[in-house]
Specification:
This protein has 245 residues and is an alpha/beta fold. The chain has helices spanning 26-35, 49-55, 59-62, 88-92, 94-109, 139-152, 154-165, 217-220, 233-244, and strands spanning 7-11, 40-44, 67-70, 75-78, 81-85, 121-123, 128-130, 171-176, 180-185, 202-207, 226-229. The chain folds into two domains: 7-86 and 189-244, Rossmann fold (3-Layer(aba) Sandwich), CATH 3.40.50; 88-185, Eukaryotic phosphomannomutase, cap domain (Hypothetical Protein, Haloacid Dehalogenase-like Hydrolase, Chain: A, domain 2, 2-Layer Sandwich), CATH 3.30.1240.20. It is built from nine helices and eleven strands. A seven-stranded mixed β-sheet has the order 5-4-3-2-1-10-11, with no helix packed on it. Strands 6-7-9-8 form a four-stranded antiparallel β-sheet. A hairpin with a 4-residue loop joins strand 6 and strand 7 (128-130). It is globular and about 55 Å long. The active site is at residues 12, 14.
Length: 245
């Protein structure tokens, strides 16, 4: 039982407790492990559970988190046990899912980028991840695209095109991580996980993509949550120390 009851700290993954798509560093993990004895902690990320396991370097390290909400909370686990799961294709219907995939592939076929690799669309239970550079890019290529995107706003323009094309559907779109866009039904953002957290009167959320259009924005700005914008895993640890002494 944590020494501060009724309080939960929720963390985004990429850019918050790990570098983007990298394994958590030992000092961050050690701090969070000790911190979990004081406050209940949880993760809420856009990626699937397999990627969470990879970035936390195994199931043993996942156990310090009371909750792991994958795919924006559409796949929910508590103490390692699956407690709920949604299915985007069943909710939207196969026709809309295929329209989204076909439009996205057509749009990306016209883009000229520093490199293109494979896995441009990744279907998940709770969302569809769209990646102009391809998720099989190397870490170096990921960084090159992130820099190129910062200069040329590739993903921002893509999101604008998606919003225009699918304006009469329940789909919404947000920029996540360094290289991709998440597509999901309205309301299936990270605030979805809050339905499982009624027992916690105080919820802190820490994330890096908190500006409008980022995939942390909705939960960061939720009236149920105390939001904290961070710039790195080290900044997350620094803010936790300042908040909880």
């Amino acid at each position: 039982m944590p020494s501060i009851p009724g309080t939960l700290c929720l963390f985004d993954v990429d850019g918050t407790i790990t570098e983007s798509r990298q394994v958590i560093k030992a000092p961050t993990l050690a701090f969070l492990s000790e911190f979990s004895e004081k406050v209940t902690i949880g993760l809420v990320g856009g990626s699937d559970y397999a990627k969470a396991l990879e970035q936390l370097n195994g199931e043993e390290n996942c156990r310090i988190f009371e909750f792991i909400f994958s795919e924006n909370g559409l796949v929910a686990r508590r103490k390692g046990e699956l407690i709920a799961e949604q299915n985007i294709a069943k909710f939207l219907g196969e026709e809309l899912v295929q329209d989204l995939i076909n439009f996205s592939l057509g749009y990306m076929s016209q883009l000229k980028l520093p490199v293109k690799r494979g896995t441009f669309i990744e279907y998940r239970s709770g969302l569809i991840n769209i990646c102009p550079v391809g998720r099989s890019c190397s870490q170096k290529e990921r960084k090159e695209f992130a820099k190129f995107d910062e200069e040329h706003h590739i993903r921002r323009k893509f999101v604008e095109a998606l919003k225009e094309r699918f304006s009469d559907t329940p789909l919404t779109f947000s920029i996540g991580g360094e290289i991709s866009i998440d597509a999901y039904p309205k309301g299936w953002d990270k605030t979805y996980c809050l339905r499982y957290l009624d027992e916690f009167p105080t919820i802190h959320f820490f994330g890096d993509k908190t500006d409008p259009g980022g995939n942390d924005h909705e939960i960061f700005s939720s009236p149920r949550v105390i939001g904290h914008k961070v710039t790195s895993p080290e900044d997350t640890v620094k803010q936790l120390v300042q908040l909880f002494n």
